[in-house]
Predict the 3D structure of the following.
Amino acid sequence: MTRNSAIAMRGALTLVEILLVLAVVGILAALATPPYIAARDRAAVQSAVTASVAAFDAARALAITRGRRAAVHIDTSGARLVVHSFRDTVLRVPLGASWGVQVSSTRDSSAIAPDGLGYGAANLLLILSRGASSDTITVSRLGRVARR
């Protein structure tokens, strides 16, 4: 058998070649994982912020259309928002269960008058965070919602 025919007959990989490929794949996976996790955390926080702003907007619209006060209650331990109008629970937004975010707040609720203006003597800050990513929503005394 000649040298060329011996090389042509060899079709399998050696253990060293397989280990080298696995090492390269492992290094590439280790380099790609942290940016992926950070991007996933940012996306989850942004989605939770959008849902939170929508809950505050829904409460304001509800107060105006029903002609009675509405409120958004912030459950920081359960990581959720609950919109109430009189005795009715109108909307529940499970921020922790849906997006895995933690919720902290300067107040436990925000009330909106039938004219669409907010009740209360101070602004409300709602901080949503997951991993290294966080975002803040500010609800002014007048009921205006802004992202910071």
User: Anything to note?
Assistant: The radius of gyration is 27 Å. The first helix runs from residue 3 to 9. The CA atoms of residues 70 and 85 lie 4 Å apart.
